[in-house]
Amino acid sequence: MKHFIYIFFLLSTWFSYTQDIKIMHINAKWNQSNNYNLRGLKNCKVQYALLEDQAPSLRAQISSVPIIILLDKNGKPRGQWKAGLSFKIEASIEEIQNRVNVIMLETSSRRATSN
Q: Quick count: other Cβ atoms within 10 Å of Cβ 100?
Protein backbone atom coordinates (compact mmCIF):
# COMPACT_ATOMS: atom_id res chain seq x y z
CA MET A 1 0.00 0.00 0.00
CA LYS A 2 2.85 2.35 0.84
CA HIS A 3 4.32 1.87 -2.65
CA PHE A 4 0.94 2.53 -4.25
CA ILE A 5 0.62 5.84 -2.39
CA TYR A 6 4.15 6.85 -3.38
CA ILE A 7 3.54 5.98 -7.06
CA PHE A 8 0.22 7.82 -7.01
CA PHE A 9 1.94 10.88 -5.51
CA LEU A 10 4.66 10.86 -8.18
CA LEU A 11 2.17 10.45 -11.02
CA SER A 12 -0.16 13.14 -9.73
CA THR A 13 2.78 15.51 -9.25
CA TRP A 14 4.03 14.77 -12.75
CA PHE A 15 0.60 15.26 -14.38
CA SER A 16 -0.09 18.47 -12.46
CA TYR A 17 3.10 20.07 -13.75
CA THR A 18 2.95 19.00 -17.39
CA GLN A 19 0.83 21.99 -18.36
CA ASP A 20 3.38 24.32 -16.79
CA ILE A 21 5.38 24.04 -20.02
CA LYS A 22 4.14 26.23 -22.84
CA ILE A 23 4.99 26.31 -26.54
CA MET A 24 4.41 29.63 -28.29
CA HIS A 25 4.24 29.57 -32.10
CA ILE A 26 4.43 33.07 -33.56
CA ASN A 27 4.11 33.75 -37.26
CA ALA A 28 3.21 36.68 -39.50
CA LYS A 29 -0.05 36.89 -41.43
CA TRP A 30 1.79 36.96 -44.75
CA ASN A 31 3.65 33.72 -43.84
CA GLN A 32 0.79 31.58 -42.50
CA SER A 33 1.32 29.02 -45.25
CA ASN A 34 4.55 28.14 -43.40
CA ASN A 35 2.95 27.55 -39.99
CA TYR A 36 4.60 24.65 -38.16
CA ASN A 37 2.28 21.79 -37.24
CA LEU A 38 2.66 21.27 -33.48
CA ARG A 39 -0.24 18.81 -33.17
CA GLY A 40 0.74 15.74 -31.27
CA LEU A 41 3.10 17.40 -28.81
CA LYS A 42 2.58 15.99 -25.33
CA ASN A 43 3.06 17.39 -21.84
CA CYS A 44 2.81 21.03 -22.86
CA LYS A 45 0.27 23.65 -23.78
CA VAL A 46 0.53 24.93 -27.36
CA GLN A 47 -0.47 28.48 -28.28
CA TYR A 48 -0.48 30.06 -31.73
CA ALA A 49 -0.19 33.82 -32.22
CA LEU A 50 0.27 36.33 -34.99
CA LEU A 51 3.24 38.66 -34.89
CA GLU A 52 1.03 41.59 -35.80
CA ASP A 53 -1.07 41.04 -32.67
CA GLN A 54 1.91 41.18 -30.28
CA ALA A 55 3.18 44.13 -28.27
CA PRO A 56 5.74 46.31 -30.05
CA SER A 57 8.41 45.31 -27.51
CA LEU A 58 7.99 41.62 -28.43
CA ARG A 59 7.79 42.32 -32.17
CA ALA A 60 11.11 44.15 -31.96
CA GLN A 61 12.76 41.05 -30.48
CA ILE A 62 11.63 38.69 -33.26
CA SER A 63 13.92 38.75 -36.28
CA SER A 64 12.39 35.92 -38.32
CA VAL A 65 9.08 34.11 -38.55
CA PRO A 66 7.80 31.64 -37.76
CA ILE A 67 9.38 31.19 -34.37
CA ILE A 68 8.64 28.58 -31.71
CA ILE A 69 9.49 29.48 -28.12
CA LEU A 70 9.45 26.95 -25.29
CA LEU A 71 8.61 28.52 -21.92
CA ASP A 72 8.87 26.92 -18.49
CA LYS A 73 6.38 27.45 -15.65
CA ASN A 74 7.99 30.80 -14.79
CA GLY A 75 7.70 32.06 -18.36
CA LYS A 76 11.45 31.73 -18.86
CA PRO A 77 12.47 30.75 -22.41
CA ARG A 78 14.02 27.27 -22.41
CA GLY A 79 14.18 26.59 -26.14
CA GLN A 80 13.72 28.38 -29.43
CA TRP A 81 13.41 27.35 -33.06
CA LYS A 82 13.46 29.97 -35.82
CA ALA A 83 12.87 29.89 -39.53
CA GLY A 84 15.76 30.44 -41.85
CA LEU A 85 15.82 32.01 -45.28
CA SER A 86 13.06 29.64 -46.42
CA PHE A 87 10.65 31.15 -43.83
CA LYS A 88 10.08 27.58 -42.54
CA ILE A 89 11.20 25.94 -39.32
CA GLU A 90 13.47 23.02 -40.16
CA ALA A 91 13.45 21.31 -36.73
CA SER A 92 11.65 17.99 -36.37
CA ILE A 93 8.66 17.55 -34.09
CA GLU A 94 10.71 14.89 -32.25
CA GLU A 95 13.43 17.46 -31.47
CA ILE A 96 10.85 19.82 -29.96
CA GLN A 97 9.17 16.98 -28.01
CA ASN A 98 12.53 15.83 -26.65
CA ARG A 99 13.24 19.32 -25.32
CA VAL A 100 9.80 19.45 -23.67
CA ASN A 101 10.50 16.07 -22.06
CA VAL A 102 13.88 17.19 -20.71
CA ILE A 103 12.38 20.32 -19.14
CA MET A 104 9.46 18.35 -17.72
CA LEU A 105 11.82 15.83 -16.10
CA GLU A 106 14.06 18.59 -14.73
CA THR A 107 11.05 20.33 -13.21
CA SER A 108 9.54 17.20 -11.70
CA SER A 109 12.87 15.99 -10.28
CA ARG A 110 13.50 19.39 -8.65
CA ARG A 111 10.07 19.31 -7.04
CA ALA A 112 10.48 15.72 -5.87
CA THR A 113 13.80 16.49 -4.17
CA SER A 114 12.46 19.64 -2.51
CA ASN A 115 9.51 17.79 -0.94
A: 20
Q: Which amino acid is at 10?
A: L
What distance in Å separates the CA atoms of residue 4 and residue 21, rounded to the nearest whole number? Answer: 27
* Stronger pLDDT, 1 or 61, i.e. the higher one: 61
Q: Cα(40)–Cα(100) distance, rounded to whole angstroms?
A: 12
Angle at 34 between CA 75 and CA 41, to 5 degrees: 45
Angle made by CA atoms 84, 45, 89, in degrees to the nearest 5: 10
Which helix (H) or strand (E) segment holds residue 68: the answer is strand 67-71
Q: H or E stretch including 48?
A: strand 45-50
Predicted confidence (pLDDT) at residue 6 exceeds the cutoff of 70 = no
CB 62 within 8 A of CB 26: yes
CA quadruple 103, 76, 50, 87: dihedral, nearest 10: -60
Q: Is the peptide bond before 56 cis (omega within 30 degrees of 0)?
A: no
Q: What domains lie within the chain, and their CATH numbers?
A: 2-109 (3.40.30.10)
Q: Which of 95, 62, 61, 66 is CA-nearest to residue 83?
A: 66
